[in-house]
Amino acid sequence: MNKDNTLKHLSNIASGVFSSLEGVRNHSKQIIKSKIEANLKNLDFVNREEFEEIKSMIIKAREQNSILETKIKTLEKKLKNRK
After folding, report:
1. Rounded distance, CA 39 to CA 66, Å?
2. pTM for this model (two decimals)
């Protein structure tokens, strides 16, 4: 019985140690995540939402640019034909 109690006691200690280590791991993970987020903010990176918004604006500007190029070419041809 004494051997069984000792093994049970060691098992309980090991379980407690693993539980504590899991808590330390989670806490460390949260601290690291916070530090990384703070450093990224200091580097003036844009977030995904801002990036997508700017990307959309650029696509629209390119489309408008293409339309304007076509109009300019058409007007240039008309001017050339008038002369």
Report:
1. 40
2. 0.48
Tokens of 1: 């019985």
The set of residues, in sequence order, having a beta carbon less than 8 Å from that of 54 and lying 6+ positions away, is 46
pLDDT number for residue 65: 98
Structure tokens at 83: 């002369």
Cβ within 8 Å of residue 46, ≥6 positions away = 54
* Residue 46 · residue 54 · CB < 8 Å: yes
Buried b vs exposed e over 63-76: b needs ≥16 C-beta within 10 Å? Answer: eeeeeeeeeeeeee
Q: What is the pLDDT of residues 2-32, one digit of tens each?
A: 777 888 888 888 888 888 888 899 999 999 9
Q: Which pLDDT tens digit goes with each residue over 57-74?
A: 999 999 999 999 999 999
E-assigned strand segments in 27-75:
none
Place of tokens 């460390």: 28
